[in-house]
Amino acid sequence: MATYARSVRRGLPRVAGGDPWPPADAMPVTADGSDGDTAPVDAPPAPAGASAPAPVEVQSPTVEPAAPAVNAAAAPPPQTMAPQARVRRGLPRVPGGEPWPPADQAAPASPVPSPAITDSQAPAEAAPPPSATHDRAPAVAEAPPRPSAPAVPAAPAGEGVALRRGLPRVPGGDPWPPAGFAPTVAAEAEPIHTPDPAADAVAPVVSEQPPAPPAEVAVPVATGPRAPLPFTPSVWPGAAASAPRADERPEPRRYGPFTRLQWAGAVVVLGAGLLVAAGMAVALVRWLLSTQWGEGFLAQYPGEYHLPEGAPVGFPAWLGWQHFFNAFLIILIIRSGLQVRREKRPSVFWSPRGTAKRKISLALWFHQSLDILWLVNGVVFVILLFVSGQWMRIVPTSWEVFPNAVSAALQYVSLDWPTENGWVNYNALQQLAYFTTVFVAAPLAAVTGVRMSGVWPKNATTLNRLYPLEWARRIHFPVMIYFVVFIVAHVALVFATGALRNLNHMYAAQGSVDPGAYADNWTGFWIFVGSVVVMAAAWIAARPLVLAPIARLFGKVSGR
Description:
Layout lengths: L1 E5 L22 E5 L46 E2 L29 E2 L47 E3 L18 E3 L13 H6 L36 H4 L11 E2 L2 E2 H30 L2 H9 L16 H26 L5 E4 L8 E2 H27 L2 H4 L6 H13 L14 H25 L8 H6 L2 H28 L2 H10 L14 H19 L2 H9 L3 E4 L1
Antiparallel strand pairs: 1-2, 3-4, 5-6, 7-8, 9-10, 9-11
Keywords: Cell membrane, Membrane, Transmembrane, Transmembrane helix
Subcellular location: Cell membrane
GO cellular component, one term: plasma membrane
């Protein structure tokens, strides 16, 4: 009798650092096969989980070892099932679940060949026990010898199904288990049945029932997260995988709420709308001034009124210099103010020599330094205005200024601009604009700027409650917008109402009572061009590289 030991396939350990699972002695299985000897063989009892019953079931009474009939040949069962093997369980199907398959699932039983009976064996008598049930066939008293096919030996151990190999047991080792074949048992040849009339006459034929089909086990599909790869990835997507496809266009860059194309479209649409509105306004005002009421209004209020007696004529040289210096400072103040407003994380700081803890950004220091110079220049300008009597040119001295301002505005809108000579007198609209700029907008900018600066006392509780910081911030920026609008309108009207004459008045201090006296003089124009070049250079040079050495003269400059 040959015995083949079937090794248990072991998997990964159940705990970190443990032994492979299952243990080596968990499920030893032995396959017994017939070697052709005539030794009697006791058929093992069929397991409870066997799924294929034998076609003819013969039950013999219990025989003592001393009985001579034991050595006789009994009617062997055609097929006997091997003992049921325990199912090998693996990893769980879902995280945190039980090992799969379940522990109560039985493995399919494999048939074990019965020993073949030779012709030399003696027939044995078999009688049914008294407790035999009614559905079992009675045994034959004497069965003649039947020829049977010789037993088929089991397949050699070196032949069979190749072992399934898994991960190595040590890093860099070979897959486990080693390469080989699983020992298999050769299929048993069906014995050749010779019909025997005598036996058929004695023993009734037992109806053979078809074996029950094996139960189908439903394998659940894992719905949880997928298990990680059993290997380290060595190939990664190249540049072509991350490159944008032809049909995927990149998102256009936005400047504020719109892209560049959207801003261009908005400017075109808004410009077209403004042109249409301006054309309609010009047509409406022209029609209004052509009426009888309009003609009478222009005759009564031509747009200007006479100045008081003793008002000066012309502009002194100091006024031209003050005008240029004021324009130079206000341009840089607007630039530095916008930089302070946009700056989120300053990179350069300035602190006074005596107080190192008080730090402000270099842009804010530049803005406040320009404000101080602008305030000093403004105070000097106002003092000289009242000393020289030039204040009567920009300060209204009669209530007629308001209807004359309306008349001048209507004439500007109708494009039939009033005849003026700034060397002698401003029109009412200009006078109100200059008065508002010098005596209203400039003080508002100064007062709100001081409230937001470090000069303001922080511990003055009553003063801070009466003049909150939020009020200053809400007023300061709109005042800056007013200055920008005033500068644009002022420069546009200077060039539109006689550029050479007006530039001579402001920059060269040249003019006459006759409006056309200096209409062809280019002196003031070239001085204006030089001032524009100086202002542009100062705008470009207002950078930390240039400002830091100047700031070190008044304090300490440090970085982040």
